[in-house]
Amino acid sequence: MDGSSKDDEMRIMEGWLYRIRSNKFGFQYSRKRYYVLQNRLLKSFTSVPISLHKDPLRTAFVNSSSCVMESGKKSIRGKVFFIFTLCGISSNGVSVKLGARNPEEAAKWVEAFQKVSLKMTQNPLSLVSIKDHKAADVSSYWTIFGCHNGLRLFKETRNEYDQNKVVHSAIAAMSVIDGAPEVVFQILMSLGSTRSEWDFCFKKGSVIESIDGQTDIIHKNLNGDWLPWGMKPRDLLLQRYWSREEDGTYVILYHSVLHKKCPPQKSYVRACLKSGGYVISPIDHQHKQAVVRHMLDIDWKLWRSYKYLQKSQSLSVHMLGRLAALREFFKTNISSYLSERKDLKSENEDLFLEMEDEESELSDEFFDLPEPFDDDQLENSSHGDLKEMVLREDGFLCNYKFTLPKDQNGDLPNSWSVPEPSLFQIRGETYFKDHKKIPAKSTLMQTIAVDWLRSDKREDNLAARTGSIVQKFAARGCPEFFFIVNFQIPGSTTYNIACYYMTNTPLKDLPLLKKFVEGDDAFRNSRFKLLPHVTKGPWIVKQSASRASLVGQLLKVNYIRGNNYIEADIDVGSSTLARGVASTCLSYFSSLISETAFVIQANTQDELPEHLYGASRLNYLDVSKAFWANP
Q1: Cα(244)–Cα(242) distance, rounded to whole angstroms?
Q2: What start-end ranges are recorded for coiled-coil regions in this protein (predicted)?
């Protein structure tokens, strides 16, 4: 067999991909390269290689500690990419962000990387499959080597490539924690002073850079008290990724990186975490307990480390003991922690915010809202909660029913209000010169109503329903125009949050809105931008819903054009990530104050400055009080 045939046998996957990077100003760009996944090597070329013996531009190693994360659909400088990130590849644990031009190609690459990583150790607790908490045959891939403080300790089984090498084996531990997975997750993510109440390795920590809603760079200084006598203190600079699965499992992944804002410190030796992380899985449907898995593959940077592998493993085992400390922390301190320690903030970043568990807030969940009235009762009822009077400029009054009452003070649970426009940042008149955004001063449309519905099916085109405010205005020949944003949240019960915005200004006097209404879906998806914000709520919700986005490039949006309205039906279930975020938000709604605004993005100078078209705030929504939609 010639060399070319051997090359072909080793090519697992190959094709054109785009390397996604950021320049010094933070703007992303792409570079087209031909990638070949050959055995355990990932090689990049500027053109299609005739032979793999040709020197590549770059080479990286895929190993048992590598993992691949799908990052979804994104537009970069006018090109749409389906992005995935390779974490922990090569010896220094770097990550590489790659993009394919279609979802099928991205899925093939993701599957190929997963197969290669699994082949190296077939390890159900490695980072590529650490999210699979149901993987059963641990003994086939890990060797149990001890039990310490009630934790079973496992050591990674050597693969064929590492049998004759001196390597730092990954180790893992498991424990059952008497706490809800989301609470365990919040505590593990905290870099504040509360971490030292259970993490004996931790001295202080900070967030160096927030990359996106699920990724950041963190720095940890480790406490020297637990290290052997004479050993210099260690620190870690890590890229951290987190996510929530549909079944309520939380995943936190780490690996060491380099960052110009955090160079090595003289008083510390920087250890290298090749890969590590936690998986927090619910045990039962009530989510009162969690199985926590903790894995470490770390090089402590000991002098002549090949002579001190046993000492290195001893340090790693000691660090895994934090899991036992966390278990005891939940047994003895968690009740006082939840009532007294509201702040899970990092000392240097506004990342960790209040946990909403004070008694006064918990009582809000049991606020009784009046049951819906029929039309006759509404006419004679003193309850104004379910009835609104809209006053036009000419004095005309329009009555309509809606499912959420308005409460501008935000004190009434299960209500809506209008937030201050200045809460949202939009593109200013000089944006294309200095890329600066400015606080919005006003909205072009008035927030009229919010519907909070549930159904056994997806509810589309709410504006067209008989009796809706939109149809009542249309029946009277009123000139007002409506924009409805309808969030469709899937599940065994489908929930809808529909916000109704209205303007008295003719469309011809709002040229960008007119262009949007009369344009095609491609144009609409390139301009329709949502600006989410969470004023009050758990940290994970604030992180999950914190970035402005062109929603049509991430989710399926069905635009419906009526005589006096346009409705955007946003299918949250069209993205796995968004579905997980929505599931998280639903579980926290009763302790959440959240805002949403929308703009039609300005892409040319003559469209600047941008205008905020509409904004609404939701106050402590109660899932059990969502109104059933008409059959």
Answers
A1: 7
A2: none
Long-range CB contacts (within 8 A, 24+) of 237-240: 237/208, 237/262, 237/270, 238/273, 239/87, 239/95, 239/211, 239/215, 240/215, 240/216
444 vs 613: CA distance, rounded Å: 5
124-158 in b/e form (b: 16+ CB < 10 A) is: bbbbbbbbebeeeebeebbeeeeeeeebebbbbbe
Q: How confident is the model at residue 368 (pLDDT cuts 50, 70, 90)?
A: very low
Task: Give the per-residue pLDDT at 359.
Answer: 32
DSSP 95: E
DSSP bridge partners of 406: 416
What is the pLDDT confidence band of residue 212, given thresholds at 50, 70 and 90?
Answer: low
Question: Which residue would you say has higher pLDDT here, 159 or 234?
Answer: 234
Show the tokens assigned to 102: 């279609």
CA dihedral over 161, 164, 169, 174, signed as positive or negative = positive
Q: Sign of the CA dihedral 173, 178, 180, 185?
A: negative
Residues 6+ apart with CB under 8 A from 37: 11, 12, 13, 14, 62, 109, 112, 113, 116
CA nearest 271: which of 325, 220, 215? 220
In Å, what is the CA distance from 456 to each residue of 107, 582, 621? 31, 17, 19
Q: How many residues does the chain have?
A: 631
Which tokens sit at 476?
């009277």
Q: 414: closest CA among 246, 593, 211, 260?
A: 593
pLDDT in tens, 410-461: 778 889 999 999 999 999 999 888 888 999 999 999 999 999 998 888 899 9
Round to whole Å and give the CA distance between 497 and 499. Answer: 7
